[in-house]
Amino acid sequence: MTIWELFVLILPVFALIAVGVALRKGGVVELAAESSLIRLVVYVCMPCLAFDTIVGNSSLRLPENLVFPPVAGFVMTSAGFAVAYAVGRLIGLAKGTGLRTFAFSAGVCNYSYLPFPILGRLWGEHAQGVMLVHNMGVDLAIWSVGILVLTGGPLRQGLGRLVSPMLVVILLAVALNLLGLAPYVPALVHTMVHALGTCAIPIGLLMTGLNLANFLGEPSKLLHRNVALSSCLVRLGLLPLLMIAFARFLPCSVDLKRVLVVEAAMPAGVLPIIIAQYYGGQPLTAVQIVLSTTAGGLVTCPLWIRAGLAWVGVA
Prior knowledge:
Shape: globular
Order of helices and strands: HHHHHHHHHHHHH
Helix content: over 70%
Number of strands: 0
Radius of gyration: 19 Å
Distance between the termini: 9 Å
Low-confidence stretches: none
Strand content: under 5%
Largest sheet: none
């Protein structure tokens, strides 16, 4: 696949984020409705998407696609926090002025809403299922190491959030898949779950735009030169190289290599904005990072995916 074809594949994903911004600015979706929509996506649509993608997925009956992906997700995300923290120190950030938020936000890629449709278009549900299992490790790193980086407080602040509908559904779906019970799931359940799961990514991308739109009222505050350049260096430069090297040199399955390459190319995720708000961080720093890396990602994403696949030797 050429770089232009990859760009055309990625562009609609970013376009949905822009539509979300327009909906918020146009008053179509009011601020009061955002929390309800977030709960709908997180507690209903995403678990349904996970169930629909995992149950009946033959690639997720292979041990190499069940054991190593969560480990890779945890290790790579934790390494991302460490690299971002070091770079934050180099640009002069300190605790209380955005260092912890910089490390947390730049260390986490957009590991769900953006890569899921890209993986689906390129390789189908096999790669998508591995991505969801891989992301269990990402979530573990976010709510343990990540919370410690952000707050400096005890791990129990975040660990309590690990038991979520998403985690429960993934474990249930993996068990049904391994036991060969997928054919016994009623057709009505499959149809309903598939319909709800189909909504997850489009609504999630719209919600990303809706959330970002809340911070666009003062454009002058959204660009901090040092934060923008450094976050792009971390998220679009150093960490993609690290993740792709991980995929090349460690014993990853082909599907996991594909997941790592695509997630490596992604900009910073939006979740850290919400977490930074909740835990008393610097949400404006997180927004600056997301906006900068998202803008840069339009150019770098297809380049990294093309180069990464070639380097790890998968198509």
